[in-house]
Amino acid sequence: MRLTSGLLIAAACLTLTAHAEVFKWVDASGRVVYSDQPPPAGVAKAKKVNVKDTAVTNVASPKKADASAASGSDTAAKSQPQASPAATKAPARDEAACSEAQKRLSFLQNAKLYKQINDKGSVEFLEAEKKKQEMAEKQAFLEKNCK
């Protein structure tokens, strides 16, 4: 029993270091420095970096079929004449936005509780109605821009 309680206390003490502050400043040579230790006394503009907990979502890696389809589209793209650079950049942005919206929608559908930082900087849980509203917005965006 003593061993178990001792291990629990030791584990609790070790987790305290995970909540350390992070400082950011520019040193004398002009480099930006991030550290868990406060800057030297001569540094005038030192900021505390807001390190907050973020939700981690897993993204599935592309499958072999996707890779072969991508290589097939590369050969088709080589046979067609090149479009203007501005025209090729716009779909890439849409693709990134679609991917981000899909990830967000998937996260909202699978998350039971979701917390976010409000304008005042305090943590609040997303209400069910706000969650449904955000899910509807992401779904509408996907239907409009990603099909």
From TrEMBL:
Biased composition (Low complexity): 61-88
Keywords of this entry: Signal
Top-rank taxon, per record: Bacteria
Alphabetical list of Pfam families matching this protein: DUF4124 (PF13511)
Keyword Signal: yes
InterPro entries registered for this protein in UniProt: DUF4124
Region Disordered: start-end pairs: 61-95
Signal peptide (from-to): 1-20
DUF4124 domain segment(s): 10-58
Protein's name according to its UniProt entry: DUF4124 domain-containing protein
